[in-house]
Amino acid sequence: MKPSADLPSTKSPAAEPRDRGGPAQPLLIVEGLRKHFPLKGLPFTRRPVVQAVDGVSFAVKKGETLGIVGESGCGKSTTARLLMHLIEPDAGTIVFDGDPVGGLRGISVRDLRRQMQMVFQDSYSSLNPRAQIADIIAFGQIAHGRDATEARERAHDLLARVGLAPHLFARRYPHELSGGQRQRVNIARALAMDPRLVLLDEAVSALDKSVEAQVLNLLQDLKQDLNLTYIFISHDLNVVRYMSDRVVVMYLGRIVEIGEVEALYRQPRHPYTRALLSAVPTLDPRRRTEAPPLTGDPPNPINPPSGCRFRTRCPFAEGVCADRTPILAAIGEGVDHAVACHMDTAGSGHSKAPAAPVSSLEAAE
Amino acid sequence: MSITAAAPAISIPAPVAGKGYWRLVGERLARDKVTLVVAAILLAVILVAIFAPLITAHDPYVGRVANRLKPIGTPNHWLGTDEVGRDLWTRLAYGSRLTLLTGVTPVIVATLIGATLGIVAGIGGRVVNTLVMRTMDVFYAFPSVLLAIAICGVLGSGVRNMILSLTIVFIPPVVRVSESVTTQVRSLDFVEAARATGASLAMVIRHQVIANVLSPILVYATSLVSLSIILAAGLSFLGLGVAPPNAEWGSMLNALRQSIYVNPVNAALPGLVILITSMAFNLMSDGLRSAMDVRLPR
Amino acid sequence: MLVYALVRILYTIPILLGVSLIAFGLIHLVPGNPLDLLLPPEAPKELVDQIKAKYGFDQPLYIQYFTWLGRVAVGDLGNSVFTGEPVREQLISALSNTLVLAIPAAVLGFALGIFLGAVAGFNRDTWIDKLASAIAITGVSMPHYWGAIVSVILFSVILNWLPATGMGPSGGLPQSWEDVTHMILPVATLSLIPMGVISRLVRATVLEINGQEFTAALRGKGLRRKRIIYHVLKNAAPPAMALMGLQFGYLLGGSILVETVYNWPGSGQLMNLAIFRRDIPVLQATVVVLSFFFVLINLSVDVLQAAIDPRIRR
């Protein structure tokens, strides 16, 4: 399908007028992001707190797809909402293409939202049930002061771009669409703002497998044509592998491992990542893993375990894991693969850790 | 989930002609037989109230005592006569005016005030919400009938005081309903999605929240009219509202109550029309509810 | 659980204070001076001052409020300006007469409502459902004072089965069959509204739960219909109970209209009398006590509900 002249796809990547830091500048840098939700408790006592996101740091390079995986409740969706400033973070900085978000010299949340958009998981509840499809897509632009007729015209173009015939769909209501069609509308709405970064929060998780594949391919095409960067959040490891260039693994509000997708899937370092991957069904007998599968549920995020949060389910847990929190560190010089585990930290005191003076390269064998 | 709702929609072959939301609701109402009948009844009551002088042949305030308590079907008085010989049909027709006025006005006023307060409490911050809702909790602690009777009893009888007391009684429940739907709608993803476009809060509230909050409030208000009519007539029944000889269903019922041994059917008639009107508003509310729920397949 | 109950109890204190404030303020809604109600316009100045001092009307409002509140807190509800007798005794006897009607009516309405709603819900869209729903909507839309009149017409005037008005010869709790016959009509009439409201709620809840997957799973496990009905009803009970708490308040307040028709010497009649005699202390006391009662009932329903339904706690 040929995109209309109005869409930014006609511009070459270099011509992106909003680019500030050049290709080497990460599009998004997140540093020490934290969100604790207080719960109701007895008056005059300390309120219990859910540590939904607790000190998350990562960077997203221009043009890549960064996957975020983890069990439900690990803080993936909270991270996405924090990035969009739909909920206010307690601490942490977000830098978009070199500009800090908020603050005096940075860009405003409003400006950030023009460049960063989000596709929600629940395709039904994320569309206003009382509005027609074209109006839903056009809303954001009209809110930013664009002429209503123009905005609706563009909504028609976008519908075509996501594979929905405008003359059939523009005036329908969300309940008249299937799940896959609604998710395409959600994508079109995100694109209407002309974003550079799109957050896909479990965007295909609720869809049938065949529909899921179509939507994933659409997303790949759009990324190519519109020069987009994605953050792709999912609990489905296969889908994340198919979509992502790099992957972040989260557990109970913290990042346990981050790395290039193939390296991370072939040689997972963190016991949690290994356990997750071993749970993925595979038909290849050579790809069997010996890692024990995960048992039990994640612990309560209200009172997470001390030290390493995974230790209560980790087969290698030792005393040090309860005493100290492992730090996310690269597993080797110049390697884009970091893990937060005492077994990979030289001199951590874990029996399987490399000895203190020896370089951590040894552990990478 | 929404899968069941989506199924019939896919089978729509032709492009859906552009319809506004209210037109959609109207079409759904038109297909609902019970609601159509109910709407016809309500329309009839309203028309009777407006054209009472044209469709009645007698004076509602003049009767001959010799003519009292004639049964239904008496020539010249097809619904019979009341305890002082006035034509019952004329009295009932004129009575619909005051009953509708005292039943509907408090709900309209209470909905305007209550919905505003409730939406503000639902959108506003914690302090505003606590302030509004805890105040309402206090009013909610009174049984509604008791509060209405007490206020009306202290203020003294009369149409104005009755409307005032019912309005005070109905504001808290409207606030509660409005606040709860606003909070619900506000937490839905589509409001977050609208915020994520960078639209201003005012814009999001106007276009995304209000539109979705008004229909449930309207449905609730319609069902409140049913209760309001019962209570308004009840206050008059107690002698706290409309005073005789004015024609009003509640006070007519009270006056005719003494005649149950002579002509029970006539005595029960004003109450029957209260029941029918109140039931019509209740069913109308049910009909509106299902017509406005766009998620239900039709 | 205990924590929830404690918080909930603490929370009722400001509400009760608010209620007392409004009930106290009621008297000042009266157009003009509250004394106008007590005294003829031509009363001599000394008498006015004397009465003013006696009732504390010469004090500032807030002092009047706290004095009144302090007295109410220890159970002193003042004296009737009409009879001069203590309000407390009148109110206790009237309230117990009202409860003699309201409690059986609440139980009956609740039981019938659950039954009707469940029958309708489990036989969705059949004629049974339509009939049950029609009964329910009639109960909800019924002016109960009219229901009272119709019941008297039917069972007393036409059939002559039951006494039309008044309490039985014993007064207070029923002690003979004759006392019970006097209760039947008022209790049945009062139970109609809660029956309608509860049955509509139960029907909707049953439909909702029936549509959920866990009931399908129960059916899949080959559970007998009886067991499934039990499971569904167990889930429908908590919201029905919460609603019943509210409905009980409606019964207390609504009794004023029904008691008038049946000439039942309950709190409703007491209040009605107080209004027409402009007997403000009696009116005030009735409002306060009935509302306190209502608040306490809702409190116990909430706590009870939390004990049954773990989702409500926290």
From TrEMBL, chain A:
Stretches with biased composition (Pro residues): 295-304
Record carries keyword Coiled coil: no
Keyword Hydrolase appears in the UniProt entry: yes
Listed SMART domains: AAA
Biological-process GO terms, alphabetical: peptide transport; transmembrane transport
Membrane topology summary: Peripheral membrane protein
Gene3D superfamilies: P-loop containing nucleotide triphosphate hydrolases (3.40.50.300)
Gene Ontology molecular function: any one: ATP hydrolysis activity
Catalytic reaction equation(s): glutathione(out) + ATP + H2O = glutathione(in) + ADP + phosphate + H(+)
Keywords carried by this UniProt record: ATP-binding, Cell inner membrane, Cell membrane, Hydrolase, Membrane, Nucleotide-binding, Repeat, Translocase, Transport
ABC transporter domain ranges (all copies): 37-277
Principal subcellular localisation of the protein: membrane
Family: Belongs to the ABC transporter superfamily. Glutathione importer (TC 3.A.1.5.11) family.
Name of the molecule in the record: Glutathione import ATP-binding protein GsiA
Source species: Prosthecodimorpha hirschii
From TrEMBL, chain B:
Xref: InterPro entries: BP-dependent_transpt_permease, MetI-like, MetI-like_sf, OppC_N
Domain of life: Bacteria
UniProt xrefs under Pfam families: BPD_transp_1, OppC_N
Transmembrane domains' residue ranges: 34-55, 98-123, 138-159, 217-240, 260-283
Residue ranges constituting the ABC transmembrane type-1 domain according to the UniProt record: 96-285
Keywords: Cell membrane, Membrane, Transmembrane, Transmembrane helix, Transport
Biological processes per GO annotation: transmembrane transport
CDD domains (UniProt xref): TM_PBP2
Subcellular localization: Cell membrane
Gene Ontology CC annotations of this record: plasma membrane
Topological relation to the membrane, as annotated: Multi-pass membrane protein
Family designation: Belongs to the binding-protein-dependent transport system permease family.
Identification of the protein by name: ABC transporter permease
Taxonomic classification: Bacteria, Pseudomonadati, Pseudomonadota, Alphaproteobacteria, Hyphomicrobiales
From TrEMBL, chain C:
Segments traversing the membrane: 9-30, 99-122, 143-163, 183-202, 240-262, 282-304
Keyword Transmembrane helix: yes
Keywords for the protein's UniProt record, in alphabetical order: Cell membrane, Membrane, Transmembrane, Transmembrane helix, Transport
Matches recorded under Gene3D superfamilies: MetI-like
Ranges for domain ABC transmembrane type-1: 95-305
Pfam family, one: BPD_transp_1_N
Cellular compartments annotated: Cell membrane
PROSITE patterns in the record: ABC_TM1
InterPro entries linked: BPD_transp_1_N (IPR045621), MetI-like (IPR000515), MetI-like_sf (IPR035906)
Membrane topology term: Multi-pass membrane protein
GO CC terms in record: plasma membrane
UniProt name for this protein: ABC transporter permease
The organism of origin for this protein: Prosthecodimorpha hirschii
